[in-house]
């Protein structure tokens, strides 16, 4: 559409205008060139009244201006793209929308190449254009932001922004702009500031996965380029996690934020700073609590494992956190927790394991006896891990008496055949590990069962005595107490 618009202009006048730009000393045809340039500006101003800046027509191509004028043309095109349209009505402003889209494509191509160093006005104009389009700084009658997760709780499908054809190009521009070698951090930090970054992080709550993916890449680039903003970015991410865990329990961008932080953790210097450990304890571990854990579990597991690799002493803290937030009524989450426990036990040191082995295997004992066959099955698979079996063998005097009664109960009562088979396999492994200890456990378990049976029998006799005594008493008035002698 914009090419058709340009084609309507007189060809000779356009040529003269370009010749005049190349050689200012040309006298012939200068009047016609000025008239053509004025015609272009008038036509552009009719569509975009505020788009012409410093005498540079935004509809000109970058190749048609000198290098000294390219930055002014860049700013002029950015100004043109600051206009926001209503995309809820496809038939409205069709020509203007197409022209803006074409201009955005030009801007993306320009920053993708190796442009001159971006001047401070160019950085300001770039951030302004991105802010107006992405953060929706526009008059009240223009379209609103796409529905956030809190406003769309009853819908299963995400809400997609009808303006995505433009937004995608703005995101692509911002990503390439931030990553460009022509952008100096010391110049741009004034405009890519805390407010700009916090708005980017806020947008990660978008329901559109395409938008979240763009924002993730941009935020990662900003973190890499602007060292001065790194503490602020980490603080903002922490605050999002805190609100998610302890207040809202609903946020669409947790997985993306964890992906960003996963790459950040790999760059942490050793020994870990106290700030990073606090984030691990107060932000990452509590993320195991929400019901929507499955949405971001893979990214969370990667982050905590990165921490444990960096600082092995954190393994015991992680297991304590898992035990604190262990799901009692959610079998799917329980299976995920068991998988994470296995990953931790594969790398944990013997000393850290001994700090948590008693509470951990008390929980494992309950999981072995779970009536949900997937939980019981996943727990019994732990015995097939050589590293875990080695930890159990070195601490068998403590661990085997904890778990063996659960294995015996499964062997006698569990309804699932696969669980029964795995139970018998685990019992066989423990017997081969220490036959004398297992025999002692069997004997002790039998004694405990006899005590339980004896108590149950006594309780049954007491109830029978009470029922017989009550049956011999005459009918009493309602609400009158009956004293029964033993």
From TrEMBL:
Q: Name one GO cellular component term.
A: protein phosphatase type 2A complex
Q: Cellular location of this protein?
A: Cytoplasm
UniProt lineage: Eukaryota, Viridiplantae, Streptophyta, Embryophyta, Tracheophyta
Q: Which InterPro entries match?
A: ARM-like, ARM-type_fold, PP2A_B56
The UniProt annotation puts the region (Disordered) at: 1-26
Write the protein's name: Serine/threonine protein phosphatase 2A regulatory subunit
Q: Name one Pfam family in it.
A: B56
* UniProt record similarity statement: Belongs to the phosphatase 2A regulatory subunit B56 family.
């Amino acid at each position: 559409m914009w090419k058709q618009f340009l084609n309507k202009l007189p060809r000779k006048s356009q040529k003269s205008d370009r010749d005049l730009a190349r050689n200012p000393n040309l006298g012939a045809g200068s009047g016609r060139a000025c008239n053509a340039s004025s015609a272009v500006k008038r036509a552009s101003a009719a569509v975009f009244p505020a788009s012409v800046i410093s005498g540079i027509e935004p509809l000109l191509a970058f190749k048609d201006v000198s290098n000294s004028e390219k930055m002014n043309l860049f700013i002029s095109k950015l100004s043109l793209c600051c206009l926001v349209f209503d995309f809820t009505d496809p038939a409205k402003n069709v020509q203007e929308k197409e022209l803006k889209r074409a201009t955005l494509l030009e801007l993306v191509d320009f920053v993708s190449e190796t442009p001159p160093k971006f001047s401070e006005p160019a950085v300001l104009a770039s951030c302004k254009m991105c802010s107006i389009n992405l953060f929706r700084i526009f008059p009240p009658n223009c379209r609103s932001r796409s529905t956030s997760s809190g406003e769309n709780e009853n819908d299963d499908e995400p809400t997609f922004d009808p303006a995505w054809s433009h937004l995608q190009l703005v995101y692509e521009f911002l990503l390439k702009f931030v990553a460009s070698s022509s952008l100096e951090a010391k110049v741009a930090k004034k405009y890519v500031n805390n407010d700009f970054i916090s708005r980017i992080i806020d947008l990660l709550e978008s329901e559109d996965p395409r938008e979240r993916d763009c924002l993730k890449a941009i935020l990662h680039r900003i973190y890499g380029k602007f060292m001065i903003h790194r503490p602020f970015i980490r603080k903002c991410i922490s605050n999002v996690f805190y609100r998610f865990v302890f207040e809202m329990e609903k946020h669409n961008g947790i997985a993306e934020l964890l992906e960003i932080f996963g790459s950040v953790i790999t760059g942490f210097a050793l020994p870990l700073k106290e700030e990073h450990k606090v984030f691990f304890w107060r932000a990452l571990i509590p993320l195991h609590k929400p019901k929507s854990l499955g949405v971001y579990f893979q990214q969370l597991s990667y982050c905590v494992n990165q921490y444990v690799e960096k600082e092995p002493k954190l393994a015991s803290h992680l297991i304590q956190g898992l035990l604190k937030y262990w799901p009692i009524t959610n079998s799917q989450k329980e299976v995920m927790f068991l998988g994470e426990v296995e990953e931790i036990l594969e790398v944990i040191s013997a000393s850290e394991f001994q700090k948590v082995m008693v509470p951990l295997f008390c929980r494992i004992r309950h999981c072995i006896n779970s009536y949900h066959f997937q939980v019981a099955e996943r727990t019994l698979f732990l015995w097939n891990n050589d590293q875990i079996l080695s930890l159990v063998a070195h601490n068998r005097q403590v661990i085997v008496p904890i778990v063996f009664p659960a294995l015996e109960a499964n062997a006698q009562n569990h309804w699932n055949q696969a669980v029964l088979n795995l139970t018998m396999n685990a019992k066989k492994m423990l017997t081969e590990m220490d036959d004398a200890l297992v025999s002692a456990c069997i004997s002790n378990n039998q004694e405990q069962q006899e005590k339980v049976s004896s108590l149950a029998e006594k309780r049954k006799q007491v109830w029978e005595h009470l029922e017989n005594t009550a049956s011999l008493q005459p009918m009493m008035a309602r609400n009158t107490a009956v004293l029964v002698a033993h």
